[in-house]
Write a structure and sequence with these properties.
The protein is α+β, with helices and mostly antiparallel strands and 73 residues long. The chain has helices at 25-31, 54-69; strands spanning 39-44, 48-53. Strands 1-2 form a two-stranded antiparallel ribbon. A hairpin with a 3-residue loop joins strand 1 and strand 2 (48-53). It is extended.
Length: 73
């Protein structure tokens, strides 16, 4: 799998009996994920499932709130 461009990663994971998956070390390292980090799971029946670190959504939400408070920004 090392033939992917820098910043890209692809792997197969298996769903465990409790519905859990293990995020491969290479992917955790790529995004700097550590045990206990919060992730947001987004699901769309047509497009699939995506995980994002909570920090991405948090910064997006803060930007939305800033625009709401001062629409001229």
């Amino acid at each position: 799998m090392s033939d992917f461009p820098e910043g890209k990663f692809l792997a197969t994971v298996k769903l465990g009996p409790k519905g859990q998956i293990v995020i491969p070390k290479e992917a955790r390292d790529l995004f700097g994920l550590k045990p206990g980090d919060a992730l947001i799971l987004m699901a769309d029946k047509g497009q699939g499932i995506a995980l994002q670190p909570f920090s991405y959504a948090e910064s997006f939400w803060q930007a939305v709130q800033t625009v709401r408070e001062d629409p001229d920004k």
